[in-house]
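One example copied in:
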Amino acid sequence: LPPMNGFVSKWLVYISLLRQGEPLLFIAAVIGTLGTVLSVFKLLHNTFLGQLRVEHMEVSEAPWSMLIPMLLMASVVVVTGTAPGLVLDWVASAQAALGLPVLEHSLGGAAGLDMLWISGVLLYGFAIGTLLFLAGGRSRRVHQFDNYAGGHFLSAENRYQYSDQFYAGLMHHIGGWYRASFTWAESVVIASVDALGTAATGFFRRIQAVFLLLLATLGALAWLIWGAA
């Protein structure tokens, strides 16, 4: 995600694959990116979202000897993400030394990407949000169970924040249709996928691994020959 340098790296990978005429690899890269996002969201979810577990009540902050190295590395990630040209200069020098076409870039990035503008827009939005927060009523720190969130009084039994059961009102009105139609369609999809998985499992268990390896090798060779042509 911007303004981190991983966003720039993925952008350059996407642009390179599209310019080289590799749509399948582009789709595979996008799917891999979605997997990365989901793994990071799982980490954020388990760490920061939901009610504090009883076994974590006594957890304290990490010491500065651990925080400082992580802050330094995070700073490098943000700085090189905001101004990727600092690193792309080295990439261009390496390309020139190897006799490869040099990547045209600026301080903000390359291939139509300008992280300076993107980071500026993000910073502007953050500043507006901060001003709106400061313009509101005075906040005070309360216990996690001493709050009233969106019509729900939170308790130790409610593991998540107020968005849990967010669609309860809607489900009250469409519950009958949902159970009659959507649940049936969902069961059909589940049964179909389960049958397909069972068939695939039986198929691959009956085929020798050497034969599968041979097919994969022939497929890779055909793809390389077709790509070269």
User: Anything to note?
Assistant: The helical segments are 5-19, 23-48, 64-82, 85-97, 115-135, 168-206, 209-228. The chain has seven helices and four strands.
